[in-house]
């Protein structure tokens, strides 16, 4: 068995991805909107998704043991017994671990209580180091109204290092927009390191959250948007704001860039067509990060059309619905070799 998590509004897409990857996987229950308990073997699915990740399934974890629970403090003793009997021998003592609990029921305890109680036992009995930020092995514990589901896996098998794929970033006082989290999450998830002093084009930049993140990564930014940028960016000499649309900038002999990001509020297909027009202004080694805003209806068609359009100039490296995406997905592109 396994547990799969996606944005509730997109759970049917995730369910289809699961069916396509593991057609023996039956959906056994919906534990919470966006959280499915499925039959089938976790590990072959995880292996397949490590090389060909799904777009909408945000997180998976295995279920190897179940424990009856009542939402009372006696559950903690039962969970401890279970991991002592079934999991301690499987924990690799050299590898950092974490316990990731999620609770979808009324209970007197919080995820933190389970995490710390079980982590204490694992640490003291196996000597494995606890590392909640970069674990190598993860014990997942999902509590529903009557049952706790427990499973041990490698972080890289779960599609995300975070419980349920919920990646939260600390809010900084200087933060300009919530959209900043989207870019931070994309860079982390797609393992993209931006070398300092690169040149970046930010299409649809206002009010400037992505531009601020790019400046923190020491990029020189050309920010294109008819709307105003935040005042802190207006004073930054390494930010050039072109107060115009992306279509207008195309007519003005754009520069060439190491990175193009695009978070324009535009239909996914129109945005993709524009990105193809921008391809000549991306260096061959360059990369693109963009969001594809999905319509309410025919979302699959919109994605397929957009990918087909982008194929004219780019290779699709990654496409995921990240925790900070709502009705959109984030993609990572590189230029095709034969595109001039
Ligand atoms: C979601 S906001 C971008 C937020 C930004 N990434 C941030 O972090 O602050 C979308 C922006 O796209 C801009 N936009 C929409 N159509 C555009 C176009 N054709 N050319 C340039 N910008 C456009 C809007 O003006 C709006 O500021």
Quick structural gist:
This protein is of the alpha/beta class. The protein contains 10 helices and 15 strands.
Structural domains: how many: 2
Topology as H/E string? EHEEHEEHEHEEHEHEHEHEHEHEE
Which percent range fits the helix content?
Answer: 25-40%
Count of β-strands: 15
Radius of gyration: 22 Å
For the sheet with most strands, the description reads: 7 strands, mixed
CATH class of the largest domain: Alpha Beta
- Globally, the shape reads elongated
Helix count, DSSP H or I runs of 4 or more residues? 10
Predict the CATH topology of the largest domain. Answer: VC0802-like
- Give unreliable regions as ranges: none
**Strand order of the biggest β-sheet:** 11-10-9-12-13-15-14
Task: Indicate the structural class.
Answer: alpha/beta
Question: What report would you give on this structure?
Answer:
With 340 residues, this protein is α/β, with parallel strands linked by helices. The protein has 10 helices and 15 strands. It has helices at 11-21, 42-51, 74-86, 111-126, 179-189, 209-216, 231-234, 246-250, 268-278, 299-310, and strands at 2-5, 27-32, 35-38, 59-62, 65-68, 97-103, 137-143, 147-154, 199-203, 220-224, 239-242, 257-262, 282-293, 314-320, 328-335. The strands form 3 sheets. A 7-stranded mixed sheet has the order 11-10-9-12-13-15-14, sandwiched between helices. Strands 2-3-1-4 form a 4-stranded antiparallel sheet, covered by helices on one side. The longest helix is centred in the middle third of the chain and has 16 residues, at 111-126. It is elongated. The model has no long low-confidence stretch (mean pLDDT 96). S-adenosylmethionine is lined by residues 176-177, 179-180, 203-210, 224-227, 245-247, 263-266. The site of S-adenosylmethionine (SAM) has 23 residues, from helix 5, helix 6 and helix 8.
């Amino acid at each position: 068995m396994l547990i799969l998590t996606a944005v509730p509004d997109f759970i049917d897409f995730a369910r289809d991805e699961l069916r396509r990857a593991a057609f023996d996987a039956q959906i056994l229950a919906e534990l919470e909107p966006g959280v499915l308990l499925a039959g089938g073997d976790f590990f072959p699915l995880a292996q397949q998704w490590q090389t060909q990740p799904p777009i909408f399934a945000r997180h998976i974890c295995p279920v190897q043991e179940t424990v009856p629970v009542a939402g009372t403090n006696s559950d903690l003793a039962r969970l401890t017994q279970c991991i002592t009997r079934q999991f301690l021998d499987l924990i690799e003592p050299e590898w950092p671990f974490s316990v990731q609990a999620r609770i979808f029921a009324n209970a007197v305890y919080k995820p933190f209580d389970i995490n710390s109680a079980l982590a204490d036992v694992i640490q003291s009995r196996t000597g494995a180091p606890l590392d909640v930020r970069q674990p190598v092995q993860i014990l997942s514990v999902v509590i529903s109204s009557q049952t706790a589901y427990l499973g041990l896996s490698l972080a890289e098998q779960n599609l995300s290092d975070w419980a349920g794929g919920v990646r939260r970033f600390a809010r900084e006082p200087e933060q300009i927009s919530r959209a900043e989290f989207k870019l931070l999450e994309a860079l982390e998830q797609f393992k993209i390191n931006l070398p300092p002093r690169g040149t970046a084009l930010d299409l649809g930049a206002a009010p400037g959250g992505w531009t601020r993140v790019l400046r923190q990564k020491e990029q020189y930014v050309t920010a294109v948007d008819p709307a105003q940028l935040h005042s802190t960016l207006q004073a930054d000499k390494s930010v050039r704001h072109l107060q115009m649309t992306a279509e207008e900038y195309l007519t003005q002999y754009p520069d060439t860039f190491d990175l193009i990001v695009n978070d324009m509020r535009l239909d996914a297909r129109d945005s993709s067509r524009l990105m193809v027009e921008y391809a000549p202004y991306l260096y061959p080694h360059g990369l693109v990060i963009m969001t594809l805003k999905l319509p309410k209806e025919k979302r699959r068609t919109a994605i397929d059309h957009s990918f087909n359009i982008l194929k004219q100039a780019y290779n699709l490296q990654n496409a995921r619905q990240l925790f900070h995406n709502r009705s959109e997905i984030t993609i990572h592109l590189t230029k095709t070799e034969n595109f001039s």
